[in-house]
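Q: For a teaching session next week I want to show students how multiple molecules come together into a single three-dimensional assembly. I've collected the sequence lines for a complex. Could you give me the predicted structure tokens for the whole thing so I can convert them for display?
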Amino acid sequence: MQIYDLKLKNNIILGSSKYPSPKVFLKCVKNIKTEMITVALRKIGDKPEKFYKTLSKTNCKILPNTAGCFNEKEAINTALMCRDIFETNFIKLEVIENKRNLAPSVKGTIKASEKLLKLGFKVLPYATDDLNFAKQLVKVGCKVVMPWGSPIGTGQGLVNIDKLKKIRKSLPKTTLIVDAGIGKVSHACQVIEIGYDGILLNSAVALSKNPPKFAESIYNGVSSAIESIKAGPIPESKKPIPSTSFKGIAFSK
Amino acid sequence: MRIVLNGKNKKIGLNEKINDLLSSLKIKSKFIAIAVNGEFISKKNYSKTILNEGDVVEIVSPHPGG
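A: Of course. Below is the structure for the complete assembly, covering every listed component.
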């Protein structure tokens, strides 16, 4: 999966939140074989190094986020603070408009993307499944767009799969990652099967009953989906096509 | 002089800089970032930035996130 100038072998980006313990989180990172982990910034606690030390054990690239930002200014300043700490230009841009369903702000995300790209950031914007929104993000220079499958943390999967397919068809050169809404292995497989480049997930793994096992299942499922695409699935047909020939059927005249 | 540090009132000395604030808070970690009144302040400016009465200072560090 191509993230600006970075080529990742694995198609899964994993969030670092809500795990039962750092130990379980590290097991999940290992089992899902991710190379990139999302992290956030929050008001300083007693031991600021503690979480960073856990992160450094993963040997993964860090993708800081701007989660919790409700306007362009907050997002830009949070991105600058992320860069100051993590020394990376990658930023998962979240500018939330609707606190109820955590939907991104179209205007705020586009404006912030444009400014952050000019400041040298490699922006991975969280978006909806709206085609025009995705197109505008590409127009301002985003090489990666991350439409939601369904609202964050709902685990509903790809509720508007046709809209996601339209984005893929219209933006063939853009790296597309479904961010948010994944709940089951089948959802992650669908993302690959509709031609997307990758999946970003967190709650689905972290809040499952057995996170390391679930992480392993996601990896296996996604790997199988990738291999099956390489093997060339049949094209979809609107008309039924019998798999057994009618030729030579008994009782036929 | 009074500032608002991470949402709580705090008294600091006159003409105190960000560096001085970090020293008084015994924060030595490099895994922090700071904004004053919503504007990011880079580490190289900690020794130059003087805090003023009523400034809203946010000190953040890495946290789990999705």
